[in-house]
Design brief:
Elements (H helix, E strand, L loop, with lengths): L42 E7 L5 E2 L7 E8 L4 E7 L1
Antiparallel strand pairs: 1-2, 1-3, 3-4
Length: about 80
């Protein structure tokens, strides 16, 4: 199925557990598990995806995109930004 998620919200699909006991919270001050890219490993490609995960080549202003960067060594990092 599909779901609409507002900015700064997320959802989890849980199967095989008592979802009534599932709780989570995040704050802007908490660290994430997102990888960082070193300055000695230059970015060789940047890809943009819409929030549905479809790769896009034409960006619209004031729209959120998932930005995937790929370095020379093959490492990747992703972030969400509004263009």
């Amino acid at each position: 199925g599909t779901a609409t998620v507002q900015a700064f919200e997320s959802f989890v699909i849980a199967t095989g557990i008592d979802a009534g006991n599932l709780r989570s919270s995040f704050s802007a001050e908490e660290a994430t598990a997102l990888p960082t890219i070193s300055g000695d490993d230059p970015v060789v490609r940047t890809e943009y995806y819409n929030l549905q995960g479809v790769r896009v080549t034409s960006l619209r202003s004031s729209s959120p995109y998932i930005v995937k960067t790929i370095t020379k060594s093959g490492k990747t990092a992703s972030r969400v930004e509004i263009r």
